[in-house]
Amino acid sequence: MTMPTRCLKVDSLTAISLALTKSQQHPYAALSYCWGPKQFPNLVTTRNSFNDMLENIPLTAFPPTLRDGILVTHQFGIRYLWIDALCIIQDDDDDKNNEIPQMRQIFTNAYCTIIAATAAHCHAGFLHTRELPRVSELCVPDPGPGAKDGSMILRPHEPDEWVLYDPLDDPVNDRAWTLEERLLSPRRLIYSKNYLRWLCETAEYTNGGDLEDRRFVSASKRHTQMERLPPQLSPRVNTLVEVADTVTHDRETWYAWLLIVREYNIRSLTKSKDKLRAIGGIAELYQLRTGDQYCAGLWRRHLAEELLWVVRNPRATFRTMLAEANDPTGSSVRTVGIFPRPKYRAPTWSWASVDGMAANHRMLTTSLFIADVFEVIDCVVVPERPNAPLTGVRSAVLTVRGRLKPAYVQTDSLMLYESEEACQREEYFGTCHLDAVEHEPYPNPRPVYYLEITSRASHGWAGNQQGITLVDNAEIHGVFHR
Fold first, then answer.
1. CA-only gyration radius of the chain, Å
2. By CB distance 3.0 to 4.6 Å, which of 97, 299, 399, 435 could disulfide with 377?
3. How confident is the prediction along the chain (482 residues), in pLDDT tens digits per residue?
4. Is 112 helix (H, G, I), strand (E, B) or coil?
């Protein structure tokens, strides 16, 4: 496999240096980890230190997490290791813009990705003694067939408190960047809280045995983390022609994308502007598999349905949602996940324009019927960087045809009314979900527009129309924002 532009060369534990490796053909490992807050400074390559990095770097100069990654690489007999902080020049925007779009190839081509799952920051390290969780079990005699001597192990049947492995305990799984690092890698060596785990496309093992049985994760916490890319997006499939033979329907691949976005938006980003960057590698893979047009986090073939994303924590109540939405100061603890709208990084009709748990929950559980009157006419996205069109947006315009209904929304109840008179009579026709907290004061009720997208759903929301609430752009007639 072709190597990245640069890698750490580990000839021995006393001969470590940054090497120029572009176009070379050597196996290399990659390190996936948490940088951590600023009080834990990382060792990085800068324009001033670049030449020094090409010389010998003492092992003691690396913070513990990076040092442990080097030790594992050396023990495996691999001579090269890719670490973002060292292999990308951190104070050179041109270098970042060249290297970050290569993430898909870097992790897909890595022989193995070392995941420092248990390390909360670069000074935590991950090569430490682990105490295996204790499980109550009882060994009883079991004669078995033919009266042969044997024994049987009895264990509890997965109560919530009995969890041998929960991915959510590992800090690395709270970081947005590490999702595609894990999913794109063909082989993963995961240093988790309690176990050393091996995960590849066909098997999963731990230092405590096979993980394929259900006893390592409780039933209530299973499916909280995607361990592998779905088959429809496997890097083993190299061309669109091959996908046409193996994927029976485009919708299955799209559902896989929705699941990835749902998990991605639970995770945190240090830099808000990285919202599209940190999932750009998987977006590139999806586009390669389907030939679809990427529209700032959404896909052209499914735009009508994808516009129905919502920001909502399923565990939150409607009362807490209202209380937090009406607290623009952010002084309350946000259990719902509705935050002030960040600086522009995507159009308002994209989930990437907001912080929080934005996902297409309805599409994952309900079959929708797009209204006959709704049609996507055009979608024009101007990328932030032409050489990396999937990693950032400078501007975007979505043109649709549909039924646009003037309405009013009560800002304290989020109820939708056809008129101010209907508002006074409390005759509402629907409710809306807030995407972000607005800082500016608005009249109550506030004039808005309701754009119908679906006529009904097959189940779950049967008989209900679904759409999005828009606000008129005061400066340009016919232009709206969500």
1. 25
2. 399
3. 789 999 999 999 999 999 999 989 999 999 999 999 887 888 999 999 999 999 999 999 999 999 999 999 999 999 999 999 999 999 999 999 999 999 999 999 999 999 999 999 999 999 988 876 665 666 777 766 665 667 776 666 555 444 556 677 789 998 999 999 999 999 999 999 888 889 888 888 877 554 444 344 433 344 456 778 877 777 665 545 454 444 455 778 888 899 899 889 988 898 889 999 999 999 999 998 889 999 999 999 999 999 999 887 644 444 444 455 455 444 443 445 678 889 999 999 999 999 888 887 666 666 678 888 899 999 999 999 988 899 999 999 999 999 999 999 988 788 999 999 999 998 998 888 888 887 777 888 999 999 999 876 544 444 467 899 999 987 888 899 99
4. strand
Q: What are the distances in angstroms from CA 257 to CA 102, 114, 370, 448, 457?
A: 20, 24, 20, 31, 21
Q: Give this prediction's pTM.
A: 0.83
Closest CA to 123 of 34, 191, 44: 34
Cβ atoms of 218 and 207 within 8 Å: the answer is: no
- Rounded Cα gap, residues 64 and 67, in angstroms: 5
